Amino acid sequence: MSASVAVRVPAKVNVQLAVGAARPDGFHDLANVFLAVGLYDEVTVTPADELRVTCEGPDADQVPLDRTNLAARAAIVLAERRGLEPAVHVHIAKDIPVAGGMAGGSADGAGALLACDALWGTGASREELLDICAELGSDVPFSLVGGAALGTGRGEKLRVLDVGGTFHWVFAMAGRGLSTPAVFREFDRLGEGTVIPEPVASQPLLDALAKGDPDALAAAVSNDLQPAALSLFPELAGTLAAGRAAGALTALVSGSGPTTAFLARDPESAAEVAETLQASGTCRAVRTASGPAPGATVVRVSGA
Ligand code: C5P
Predict the structure, then answer these.
(1) Ligand 1 atom 21 nearest Cα
(2) Is 247 labelled a binding residue?
(3) Which NCBIfam families does UniProt cross-reference here (predicted)?
(4) Is the Cβ–Cβ distance between 45 and 119 less than 8 Å?
């Protein structure tokens, strides 16, 4: 048996997030176009006496280390399915913003699952891994798959999408987090008394991705959760405006927020937008990253 396995997992931005009405189970049907971007968490699992989670990185103090952490849950679910004890130390080197709408928690779930599968030699099929990911959370299957994909259902049913080029992004981290359930509740509240259409993927957006055309993508992006995120976090409007004024092709809230995402035409322009945003005082930190990026990948196996 190997002594430790490390898996690298990307963040995501939603280039389209179409949200339907609340379902009886409380979830919302989505047309969710995910693009993985090159900001990564690295999840390392090592045999231990009992399950333990540790985390390092600038936002590490905001990460729960108990069994609510999706990385811990992933180890527990896989172990239960195989009649094993989840006796591992899961260490997360965190670079993805926490509670930011960039699937950082989902990334750790997918990473721990792939790492435990390799560590324990459980040989789970891709289908079983995706099934466990969907059990862990709506965005977790995409963290495993990476690239670009259309998520339907609650976001967990994936169709892989073609991407014809590299898209350059700037991300602005906010001074505090936003809770995803709270943003969906605000979406419901804002939509009360209106008819909410079925969520459908935008064909111009899928075409823009397939062509690798940043101008066409900028014209087609949309996020139905953005009004709800702005309602709960009005200062984000200032960050979006600062990025647009800095020359971004488009600006939007990433998923349920509060991270905001800015599409740039090329790496030079992304660096300029990043610098201006950083100086604007409208956000806590700024990062650049391009996508698509690969999904969860084993990057190290160290021998026993
Ligand atoms: O699936 P996940 O645990 O990531 O979802 C977190 C929360 O986000 C859910 O409890 C629900 O409130 C909301 N959600 C939703 N519809 C979705 C996905 C998430 O309402 N399709």
Answers:
(1) 154
(2) no
(3) ispE, PRK03188.1
(4) yes
Identify whether residues 18 and 155 lie together within a single domain: yes
> Domain range holding 117?
4-161
Q: Would you say 247 and 254 are in contact if contact means Cβ atoms under 8 Å apart? A: no
**What kind and span of H or E run contains 268?**
helix 267-280
Q: Using CA atoms, how far apart are residues 242 and 151, in angstroms rounded to an integer? A: 30
Residue nearest to atom 3 of ligand 1 (CA): 137
Residues 45 and 142 in one domain: yes
Tell me what pLDDT residue 1 has.
Answer: 54
**For residue 303, is it within any domain?**
no
Task: Give the model's pLDDT for residue 59.
Answer: 87
User: Is 103 annotated for ligand binding?
Assistant: yes
Confidence of residue 218 (pLDDT cuts 50, 70, 90): very high
Residue 221 has pLDDT above 60, yes or no: yes
CATH number at residue 109: 3.30.230.10
Residue 12 annotated among the catalytic residues of the structure: yes
pLDDT digits (tens, 9 = 90+) for 32-71: 999 999 999 999 999 999 999 999 998 899 999 999 999 9
